[in-house]
Design a protein that fits this description.
- The complex is a heterodimer of chains A (116) and B (110).
- By secondary structure, chain A is mainly β.
- Chain A is built from no helices and 11 strands.
- In chain A, 0% of the residues lie in helices and 54% in strands.
- In chain A, strands 2, 4, 5, 6, 9, 10 and 11 form a 7-stranded mixed β-sheet that branches.
- Helices cover 0% and strands 56% of the residues of chain B.
- Chain B is built from no helices and 11 strands.
- In chain B, the strands form 2 sheets. In chain B, strands 2, 4, 5, 9, 10 and 11 form a 6-stranded mixed β-sheet that branches. Chain B has a 5-stranded antiparallel β-sheet with strand order 1-3-8-7-6, with no helix packed on it.
- The chains are: A mainly beta (116), B mainly beta (110).
- At the A-B interface, β5 and β10 of A face β4, β5, β9 and β10 of B.
């Protein structure tokens, strides 16, 4: 069973289009994340949700809108795609760190977005 | 200063070698520390959490030095299959934000 799944795996689209990426986790975690990994391989957090509530929004353009219908799902909608949005987008999940020492994250396989 | 900085790579080592990676972090209030491994065109996968007392998992040893604000990863008896990018990660505050280093690429050669 796949723990964290994302669809689609590849997305090729033209500038100006709107696209969505979906993420689901079956680990029972209550926190989910979106990360962007650019061509230099730097992995940067975009959003974090805890129990469907937005916790972190890391100065991401408002063309990016996450939505969490329940704590097992976190989707990402991107409006008016730009060339600079080309990257790999990873979804991840973790359990809320009750003791402060937990926080291991489990990543989905990634969505490779190419904007032409 | 970057929040999390790693040794620049790549590291090229022969099979059987011992290799060490360091990672420094800027926030002294950071509470949780991790090493992830990322293979080419794959997702990051947790390699080890790093505990204050240091921890070992087979050929891998992780250590934390809070005073100097760095974590390390030691790989003994390197295997070809250890070739990957190693990312250190620091989890701040309540656990919702994890900051990743840029990664260190390791190539193990036969």
């Amino acid at each position: 069973d796949t723990a964290v799944s994302q669809t689609p795996k590849y997305l090729v689209t033209q500038m100006g289009n709107d696209k969505s990426i979906k993420c689901e986790q079956n680990l029972g975690h209550d926190t989910m994340y979106w990360y962007k990994q650019d061509s230099k391989k730097f992995l940067k957090i975009m959003f974090s949700y805890n129990n469907k509530e937005l916790i972190i929004n890391e100065t991401v353009p408002n063309r990016f809108s996450p939505k969490s219908p329940d704590k097992a799902h976190l989707n990402l909608h991107i409006n008016s795609l730009e060339l600079g949005d080309s990257a790999v987008y990873f979804c991840a999940s973790s359990q809320y760190p009750l003791s402060g020492s937990v926080g291991e994250q489990y990543f989905g396989p990634g969505t490779r977005l190419t904007v032409t | 200063r970057k929040e999390v900085e790693q040794d620049p790579g790549p590291f090229n080592v022969p099979e059987g070698a011992t290799v060490a990676f360091n990672c420094t972090y800027s926030n002294s209030a950071s509470q949780s520390f991790f090493w992830y491994r990322q293979d080419c065109r794959k997702e990051p996968k947790l390699l080890m959490s790093v505990y204050s007392s240091g921890n070992e998992d087979g050929r891998f040893t992780a250590q934390l030095n809070r005073a100097s604000q760095y974590i390390s990863l030691l790989i003994r008896d390197s295997k070809l299959s250890d070739s990957a990018t190693y990312l250190c990660a620091v989890n701040d505050g309540g656990g919702f934000k994890t900051i990743f280093g840029a990664g260190t690429r390791l190539f193990v050669k036969a």
